[in-house]
Design goal:
Elements: H1 5-14, E1 22-25, H2 31-38, E2 43-48, E3 58-59, E4 70-73, H3 76-86, E5 90-92, E6 101-102, E7 105-110, E8 114-125, E9 130-136, H4 143-149, E10 154-159, H5 167-176, H6 181-200, E11 203-214, E12 219-221, E13 225-228, H7 237-240, H8 250-257, E14 261-264, E15 269-273, H9 276-288, E16 295-298, H10 305-316, E17 323-330, H11 335-349, E18 355-361, H12 364-372, E19 379-380, H13 384-396
Parallel strand pairs: 15-17, 17-18, 18-19
Antiparallel strand pairs: 1-7, 2-4, 2-7, 3-5, 5-6, 8-9, 8-11, 9-10, 11-12, 11-13, 14-16
């Protein structure tokens, strides 16, 4: 689960990390109060969306200005006008895709004198099953770009969970970032603070970019992105309260309400599969046969008829879907349950695109019999390769 920058900074502030003063604005009429509260003389107006690259982004609407979802202004009336212009407009960045995202919240922050910009992040390293730190002197840039062009400027290390973070970890980061004196001491403390917060909040990513050294020699978290492990949110109602459903894909949001693992993609063949590994294999073989998957959808091992019906409805709600492949290997999941769910969904929403069904495993003959007697125009497949070939051929004509 993602949260907005201003929410991430509130969490940082609650742990004692250095962040600047700022005020979120959700309604245009509150802009003047926010700007006045900060007092100036410099304000930074930031569009709040769940995507990076805001500063280089472009608004679709001309009245919001062509460039930048992050603006530095030095006049009170200009700051107010900027907030009013951004709210409700669509910001397009390299992470949003061409559709962009509508700005429903704006963060007005006090300006800061910047001497240096640095990069610092924590994430879960899947290879080592540990929390890893990434630090670089090249703050303000995409870390992928730094890694490609100047990898020697990136420090990466993982923390042994048996010991947790230690002072030497902080000293290692401070040295890599070229920090001395007060800033180095603050860095050592910050590393410990971030690690504790990461563990206690079940985060999956904390990215501070840039982490700045101010003109008076102090560290300040100028921007922050936080992601959380969705599987651990039941332990964190305070994090769940920060969820902004308007930032989420409608189909993915609907799927989450039925405990379906769904991710929307850009292809043309909708997939309904049980098991993440089989779902990945299904997407791969669709590409192998010359098409693209429209989604990742794992209905899980214990799916009910109702869940299968909802999954099918979510797939058919995607206007890009030109064909559907149902690929079920019945272990815990029963093929007859899948068959009943598909039939119920088709009867409810209709079937306007080709449908290929491949069933194997528990109650497979019963499942096939249910589909054969349904009267639906379903293309049967004997195996995964056969299923992929048939659905691609049906879609491509």
């Amino acid at each position: 689960m993602n949260i907005h920058e201003y929410q991430a900074k509130e969490i940082l502030r609650s742990y004692g990390a250095p962040v600047g003063k700022g005020v979120p604005v959700l309604k245009a009429e509150d802009a003047a109060k926010a700007v006045e509260e900060l007092g100036g003389p410099v304000w930074v107006v930031k569009a709040q969306i769940h995507a990076g690259g805001r500063g280089k982004g472009t608004f679709k609407e001309a009245e919001a200005g062509e460039k930048g979802g992050v603006r530095v202004v030095k006049a009170e009336d200009e700051a107010i006008a900027m907030v009013e212009q951004m709210l409700g407009k669509t910001l397009v960045t390299h992470q949003t895709g061409p559709a962009g995202k509508q700005v429903g919240r704006v963060y007005v922050e006090a300006g800061a004198g910047i001497a240096r910009e640095l990069y610092l992040s924590l994430l879960v390293d899947r290879e080592t099953s540990r929390i890893s730190f990434i630090a670089s002197t090249e703050g303000g840039m995409d870390i992928e770009e730094v890694a490609a062009e100047t990898p020697e400027k990136i420090l990466t290390f993982s923390v042994d969970p048996a010991t947790g973070v230690m002072p030497f970890h902080g000293r290692k980061v401070a040295k890599a970032l070229g920090l001395e004196g007060l800033a180095a001491k603050q860095c050592i403390k910050l590393i410990g603070t971030l690690y504790r917060m990461f563990v206690e909040k079940d985060a999956s990513l904390v990215e501070i970019n840039p982490l700045i050294v101010t003109e008076d020699g102090n560290l300040l978290c100028l921007d922050c992105k936080m992601n959380f492990d969705s599987n651990a949110l039941y332990r964190h109602p305070e994090i769940m309260e920060l969820r902004d459903e308007t930032e989420e894909d409608e189909k993915e949001l609907a799927a989450s309400k039925y405990d379906l693992n769904y991710i929307s993609l850009d292809g043309e063949i909708g997939c309904m599969v049980n098991g993440a590994g089989l779902a990945m294999a299904t997407m791969d073989i669709i590409k192998l046969y010359g098409s693209e998957p429209a989604n990742f959808l794992d209905v899980g091992g214990g799916a009910t008829k109702e869940k299968v019906t909802e999954a099918f409805k979510i797939i058919t709600s995607d206007p890009n879907v030109k064909g559907i492949l149902v690929n079920i290997f019945g272990g815990i999941m029963r093929c007859d349950v899948i068959a009943e769910g598909v039939i119920a969904a088709v009867k409810e929403v209709g079937l306007k695109v080709p449908l290929v069904v491949r069933l194997e495993g528990t109650n497979v003959e019963l499942g096939k019999d249910i589909i054969n007697k349904s009267g639906l125009d379903v293309i049967a497949a004997d195996n995964l390769a056969d299923a992929a070939e048939k659905i691609v051929k049906a879609v491509k004509g």
